[in-house]
Amino acid sequence: MAADSLHHHFVLPGQVLATSMSESEGGFLRGHGTYIELVPDESTDHNDDDMCDTKQQGGMAGTSKKKRSGWGTETKSTVMKMDDGNEAEKQDENDEPSDFQRGPQRLIASVAGTVERVNKLISVIPLSPSIYTGQVGDLIVGRIVGVGGSRWKVSLTCSPPTASASNGSMKEGQLPLSGVNLPGGVQRIRTSEDVLAMRNLFREGDLLTCEVQQVQKDSNLILHTRSLRYGKLDNGVLVTVPPSLVGRRKNHFVTLKGLTSQNNDAMDTEEGGEGDVDVYLGLNGGIWIQRTIPSEWENAIRADQDERAPLAETLQKLRHRHATTRVSPSMRESIARVRNSVECLRLVHCQITPDSIAIVARASVDQGVRVADMLLPEMVIKLTEGTRR
Questions:
Q1: Is-contact 204 198, C-beta < 8 A?
Q2: What pLDDT, in 10s, does the model give residues 238-275?
Q3: Are strands 56-57 and 151-155 parallel, antiparallel or unpaired?
Q4: pLDDT at residue 166 greater than cutoff 50
Q5: Which residues on neighbouring strands pair with residue 253, listed in sequence order?
Q6: Residue 57 backbone dihedrals phi, psi, to 5 degrees
Q7: pLDDT score, position 25
Q8: What is the pTM of this model?
Q9: Which string of DSSP letters, residue by residue, matches 85-141?
Q10: Which helix (H) or strand (E) holds 196?
Q11: 132, 152, 230, 343: least CB-packed within 10 angstroms?
């Protein structure tokens, strides 16, 4: 076999990974991202309409003992009587291996990625998986695409609601009503009135942060937003990247400081803060960027309310003020700079981390690059140079 030298190597679709000349070699096992093809036999009569040299078969190579109908093998049929008198046709399975299983076979990659081998099992792990597969505890930045049945449907690809019906392969998660915080942080059993008022919490098109609570056997994800740091997202920018570029880390809520250019040092008095930007790194590929809520806002809210007021009520008022307060032009530039920094990293297929985002954003500030010019091809290479050292 030729797979020994391909372990952890990068391969392209159509590249031959292994070849089995005969069943006595032991063959190989087909893993994800591969398929099996017969090696053309020069001695085969090419004028035969039933030839199967170019047919493909998935599964285990050199081990199947059953004849398969439709692959150039003949099958015998017998008629058997059922208890109700009806006749049913049954395929007769022959234990002898056919010429299709006995011929030389080769394993070919069907996706671009790295080769993984465990004994005889050979798989190709794609570099950029198109569908996110979640794990318990993952941070998700998703979009509400459906409401009903005491739960919300959350698009894990952040697609708009209009695309959910036409995209049958779109990955969705389920956010049950019991997995969200009620207004004011009230802890009680959900009633039918709460079901009728579900759209007061989230409606179609809303963006939110949530966490994977459970992964079911059929790979469906059950989400929740019971933590006070999760909830609806407003007044920010969403960037979508391949999930493979966002790695798991201890904290996915990060703050980037000091990204304001020298020409925009003076912040709006209503805005407050020093130009800090919050970044939420969703493991499903959704990245949310917004301004950091100034500490002056929280101090003002606490001064106006009772000291015994729950923390959930304070955070709810902070989110409301954040959603209704305009974003100053200088803060918009900082948010757009971070957004374009993420796009630069995506274009060069670099891992998106707080450090890599900060390197690109600060490089654009130090070099005096305008936000609108950051995505020019020559600027993308220049600004991301620090991430390749």
A1: no
A2: 999 988 889 889 999 999 987 765 555 544 444 545 57
A3: unpaired
A4: no
A5: 280
A6: -135, 135
A7: 53
A8: 0.66
A9: S-EEEEEPPPSS--HHHHS-EEEEE-SSEEEEEETTEEEEEESS-SS----TT-EEE
A10: helix 192-196
A11: 343
